[in-house]
Amino acid sequence: MGRKSREIIKANVDDVIADLTKAYADEWLAHYQYWLAAKWIRGMDADTLRDILVGQSNDELGHAEKIANRIIQLGGTPIMDPGKLLQISGCGYKQPPGDPNNLKQVIQDVLDAETCAIETYNKLAEKYRTTDLVTHEMLEDLLEDEVDDEEQWEELGGIWKK
Questions:
Q1: Number of H-type helices and E-type strands within the chain
Q2: Full-prediction pTM beyond 0.90?
Q3: Residue 30: which CATH number?
Q4: Domain presence at residue 88
Q5: Is 75 helix (H, G, I), strand (E, B) or coil?
Q6: Are 23 and 85 in contact (CB under 8 A)?
Q7: Which residues of 66-76 are buried (b: 16+ CB within 10 A; e: fewer)?
Q8: Domain membership flag for residue 4
Q9: Longest dimension (CA), the chain
Q10: Domain count along the chain
Q11: Low-confidence ranges of the chain (pLDDT < 50)
């Protein structure tokens, strides 16, 4: 982190890195959850849902990249051992349902993950609103993406309930 960057950050950098590391783990797990579900699902309408899951998976990977970049800017190191992702995660991971035809459960699992991400980013954006503006702005952008995602998945859930 540069000299001026260190001067303007008022938050405890170790706390910021710890919070971002947890969010980073969440994004990696969401990426994997959605990607794996896309490969697993079967049945009527699975192709439509599969394409959406793959797109969503790519978005979550992009979020992980943004967070990793910020962790590095702050002088931290992103999680290097994928086995630690579950230990550090705040939102966790839900494996695809045992029945690959249970598209409703896949949608609900994604909705649960998106809800957790919204809660996390909202809390962290508030926490760093006045103490780390760069992190705050990134978190606001991620929060906006997750809010849009939740709306999309709620609409999909309504379609699949019919």
A1: 6, 0
A2: yes
A3: 1.20.1260.10
A4: yes
A5: coil
A6: no
A7: bbbebbeebeb
A8: no
A9: 57
A10: 1
A11: none
